[in-house]
Amino acid sequence: MPASWHKHARVNVLWRRRFRLVLNLMGVAVFALLGAAGFSQAMDILPALSGSSVDAFKVVWVAATAGIALYAVAASVVLVRIRRNDSLSILQLRQDRADAMARIDRLESLLETEDSLLLVWDGEAKHPGVAGHLPENLELAGGLSQLVEFETWLDVKSAEALRAFLEHLRGHGEVFRLTLTTTDGVYLEASGHTAGGLAVLRLRDLTGDRQLSARLAEQNKELREQISSLHSLLDALPGPAWQRDNHGQLVWVNSAYVDAVEAESTRTVVEEQVELLEAKGRNKLNMMRQTDGVYHSPMPVVAAGERRVFELTDVNSEHGNAGLAQDISELERVQGQLRRTLESHTRTLDQLQTPVAVFGADHRLQFYNAAYRSLWDIDQSFLETKPEEGELLDALRAARKLPEQADYRGWRNKHLECYHALDAQAYWWHLPDGRTLRVIASPHPQGGVTYFYENVTEQLDLESRFNALTRVQRETLDHLTEAVAVFGSNGRMRLSNPAFAEVWGLSQEFLEADPHVNDLLDTCKELMGESDRWQELARGVTGLSDNRTSVSGRMERIDGSVIDYVTVPLPDGGTLLTFVNVTDTVNVERALHATNDALQEADQLKNAFIQHVSYELRSPLTTIIGFAQLLGDAKFGDLSPKQEEYTDYILSSSSALLHIINDILDLATVDAGIMELEISEVDVAQTVSEAVEGLKDRLVESDITLRTHMPEGIGHLKADERRLRQVLFNLLSNAISYSDKGGLVDISCQRDESEIRFRIKDHGAGIPQEMLDQVFSRFVGRGAGGNRQGVGLGLSIVKSFVELHGGTVDISSAEGQGTTVDCTFPLEPHVHSLEAAE
C-alpha cells in the first residue's frame, strides 16, 4: 500500500471527526434556540392564561420537555449515522493495513530468497537500515552492528574503496559497482544506487562460477603485477636477460640485451629474433644443460662490438626458458692478476728473514717460508703434510717451544679464535728459551690466517733501557721549577717542560707541533712587545758560529713579570734555554709599600663606610619605620584594609632592611677592629629561651617544631649576652629557613670544664658538599625549597662573633638529611683583636 494513500486516509478520518464536532455544536445551538423561542412564547401567553383555568407553569414545563425530547431524537439520529460511518472507516483501514502487511511480507520473502543484504541510509543518518541477510560465507562476530565497520571484516584496499564510493553515493548520488575481498578471502559484489532520496548499498556473495571468475581475475591481476615488477627488476640489471616460449622464440628481453646486440628497441629484437649468442654457443648451452634444465657456466660473447666473458645462467622448463648473463670480464682479469700477485708474494716471502706461515680456512698449513722452519726447528716432512694449526701447536708444546700456560687448552682455543676475527691481532709470546716473539695474526677475508713472527728480544731490551733513561730525564725536567726548552740545530724545539708552557702561556697543541724558534718569537711578541731580547735568543739558537757561548740576562715583559734567562750550547749542536720567573722577588718591595698604602686607605674607607651607613641609611630608615607605625596607629585616623596591608608591608620590609644594615654595621665594625664586646655573666638557659622566643612567630608560620635539650644546671657563661643571643637567633633562623614545612629543629647545649658547646640541627634539604666551604662567606646564600634566598650575612656574623669570643664554629651537612652547626664558647674568653678575627 503506498504511503501517500495512508496519509490521505488519516486526513479523511480527521476531517470526519471535525465535521461531527461541528454538527454536534450546531445541534446544540439549534435546540437551544428552539428552547429559548418556546420559553419566550410561553412567557408571552402567560398573562393571557392567567385568567383561565389552564396552569401556566405546566404549559412551560410541557414546552421545555418537548424541546428536550426533540433534541434527544435529533442527536440520536446524528450519532447513529456517525457511528455507522466510523465503523465503515475502521473496517476499510483494517483492510488497507492487512494488504500493506501482506505486501511487506512478500517483499521481505523475496529479499530472503536472494543471497544478498541491503543497507539503506536515509539522508544524513549515521546508521543504516538493514534488509535481507548476511551471505553464508560472511561471518561477523559483532553481527549486523559490525557491518558499517568495514575495516574489521574487509581487507584494507577493499575497505578504503567501499568507504570512498559510499561517500560519493550519499553526497552526489553516484552509483557504483565493485568487487570486495574479505579478510577471510571471500569475494563480495557491492553495488550502490539511490531510491527516493535513500542511499542503498547491496552486498551479494559471489558464489560458484562468479566467485571463481572473480578469484581468477584477482589472481590474474596479481600475476600481471608480479611479472611487471620482475621485468622492471630485470630491465634495471646491467647484464642481458631474455625469455623464450616453448618453441624457443624470444618473447621478451631487457634493455641491456638490446644494447648488447646493438638493436633499436625491444620490439625490434623480438620481431627479428636477434640472438645474443652465436649458433655454436647456443648448441653448447643446450648440450651442457644439467638434468634439471639449468645451465650455469662462463662463456665468451661478442657484446656491443667487444669480446667479453659472461657468466650465463639459463633455465629450461616445459613452458619455455629464461636466461641471464653477467659480465665477468673484469673479474677474470682481476683473478688473473691476483694469481700472478700471489705467486710473486710467495717468492718474496720465502726470501724474508721474518718467519711467515699461512693457514687456510680449514686451519691447515698452506705456506711457510724458510725462516718459519728455522724459528721452530721442525722437521720439513711434518710441515709438508700440511698439518692443522691445532696439531702444530700441540707438537710445539710437546717440544717445550711454546709459552708456558697454566690452562693450555683454553689458551689454544682463544688463539684459534683469530680465524673468526675481522681485524689483525697481535700477541706477545715469551718462550721458555728467553726469546720474545711478537705474533701478528692477519685474517683473510675468504677465510684463513697469515701469521708473522717477529723476534723482538733485543729490541725490547734496548727499548726498555732507552725508555727508562728517557723517563728519568723527562721526570727531572717536568719537576723543575725553571722553564726549560731544548732546540735542535735546525732551530726547532725538541722538548720542553710544563713550566716553559706556563711561563710563556703556550698551548700543548702548539708545543707538540715542534715549533721553530721564529714561530715561538712571533707567539711571544704579545708579551715582549718591541723588546730585542728574544731576537738575541733566536740568534743564539740558530747561529752557525763554532765558538758558541752561554748568554744570560733579565727581561721584563709587558704584563709586568720579570724573567731571568740563560742559554747553554749543547754538544749535538742544539741549545738549552732556561727561564726563571723572578717577578715575586723583584716586586716584593713594591708589594710591601703598596700593601701598606692599601691598608691605610682601607682603614679610612671602613671608617667612612660605617659613618655613611650610620647616618645616611640608618637614620632615614628609623624615621620611615616610625612614621609607618604612626600611620598604623588608630589614634591618627582609620585606614582602609588595603592601606593597612601596605603599611604592614612597609614595616616588615623596613625592619628587614634595618636588620641587614645592622648586620653590615656589625661586620664593618669587626673588620675595622673597633668591635667591643660587653663581657658579663650570661645565664645560658635564659639566653637560649630569649632567642627561641623571638622566633615563635616564624615557627608557627612554618609549622616547625623546635625541641630544646638543655641539661639542668647548665650555669653561666662569660660572654657578650647580646651577641650570644644574636648568634643563636641567626643559627635558629637559618635552620627554620632550610627546614620543610612541618619539620623539626633541635637545639642542645653541653658544658665541660673549659667550654660550652651549642648544637643546632635541622632535618631539611641539607647543603651540597661543594657549598660547605662557602657558607661562612659573606653575601653567599642559597634558597631551600620554596623559601626565599637571604643576603648571606647570618652565618658570616655568627663566625665573626664566635671567633671574637675565642670560640670555633663547625658545620656538617648531607643532602636530604639536614645540617648540624656546632658553636663552642670558652668559659673564660680572651677577646680577640682585629688581627685575630681576620
Distance between the termini: 115 Å
Largest sheet: 5 strands, antiparallel
Give the overall form: flat
Low-confidence stretches: 1-11, 784-788, 832-838
Mean pLDDT across residues: 77
Number of strands: 27
Major sheet strand order? 2-1-5-4-3
Task: Please identify the structural class as seen in this structure.
Answer: alpha+beta
Give the fraction of residues assigned to helices: 40-55%
Cα-atom radius of gyration: 59 Å
Helical run tally: 25
* Proportion of beta-strand residues: 15-25%
Description:
It catalyses: ATP + protein L-histidine = ADP + protein N-phospho-L-histidine. Helix content is 49%, strand content 21%. α19 packs antiparallel against α20, α21 packs across α23 (721-737) and α23 (721-737) runs antiparallel to α24 (794-804). It has 838 residues and is of the alpha+beta class.
Summary, kept brief:
By secondary structure, the protein is of the alpha+beta class.
Write the topology of this structure.
Blueprint: H1 3-49, H2 56-113, E1 116-122, E2 129-132, H3 156-172, E3 176-181, E4 187-195, E5 198-205, H4 208-236, E6 241-244, E7 250-253, H5 255-260, H6 266-272, H7 279-287, E8 294-303, E9 306-317, E10 320-327, H8 329-351, E11 356-359, E12 365-368, H9 370-376, H10 380-384, H11 389-398, H12 408-416, E13 425-430, E14 436-443, E15 449-455, H13 457-478, E16 483-487, E17 493-496, H14 498-504, H15 508-512, H16 517-523, H17 525-528, H18 533-542, E18 551-556, E19 562-569, E20 575-581, H19 583-632, H20 641-672, E21 679-683, H21 684-693, H22 696-702, E22 705-709, E23 716-720, H23 721-737, E24 744-751, E25 755-762, H24 794-804, E26 808-814, E27 818-826, H25 834-837
Parallel strand pairs: 22-24
Antiparallel strand pairs: 1-2, 1-5, 3-4, 4-5, 6-7, 6-10, 8-9, 9-10, 11-12, 11-15, 13-14, 14-15, 16-17, 16-20, 18-19, 19-20, 21-23, 24-25, 25-27, 26-27
Helix pairs in contact: 1-2, 19-20, 20-24, 21-23, 23-24
Protein name: histidine kinase
Catalytic activity: ATP + protein L-histidine = ADP + protein N-phospho-L-histidine
GO molecular function, one term: kinase activity
